[in-house]
Amino acid sequence: MKYSLILLFIVLFNYVSGSERNPDAVKKDIEQARQDSVRIRLLIELSDLFIYKLPDTSLFYVNKALYLAEKNHYRKYIAEIYKETGICYDIKGRLKDAGY
Questions:
Q1: CB-based contact 49:23 (threshold 8 Å)
Q2: Which residues of the chain have pLDDT under 70?
Q3: Among the listed residues 28, 60, 70, 61, the one whose alpha carbon sits nearest the alpha carbon of residue 43
Q4: What residues does each domain of the chain span?
């Protein structure tokens, strides 16, 4: 039973991790986006793709999203971006910057 659960976890993890979008495809979508709200959403998605492997890269994209969100006064996105920024800093071990 224990081995069955481990095997099930491995299979599900591979399925979920394999369903991520390609960062290059997201970058292309950002370039083609006509609305800033769409660009913000895609920049947050791009940040998510890098958050555990390259947190500095994730911060780069989330800061680009923050600039657009503040410029357009999109409060909903600003809150989400701050959450994402906190997660990035948490992963980097900078808990003070994460807001904890």
A1: yes
A2: 1-19, 95-100
A3: 61
A4: 21-98
For 1, which DSSP code? -
Q: For residue 96, give both structure tokens.
A: 């003070």
Buried b / exposed e over 7-20, threshold 16 CB at 10 Å, is eeeeeeeeeeeeee
What pLDDT score does 98 carry?
Answer: 62
**Confidence at residue 94, expressed as pLDDT on a 0 to 100 scale:** 72
Token digits for 70?
Answer: 């503040």
Instruction: Output b/e per residue, 56-68; b: 16+ Cβ within 10 A.
Output: ebbbebbebbbeb
> What DSSP assignment string belongs to 60-90?
HHHHHHHHHHHHHT-HHHHHHHHHHHHHHHH
Mean pLDDT across the chain: 83
pTM of the model: 0.74
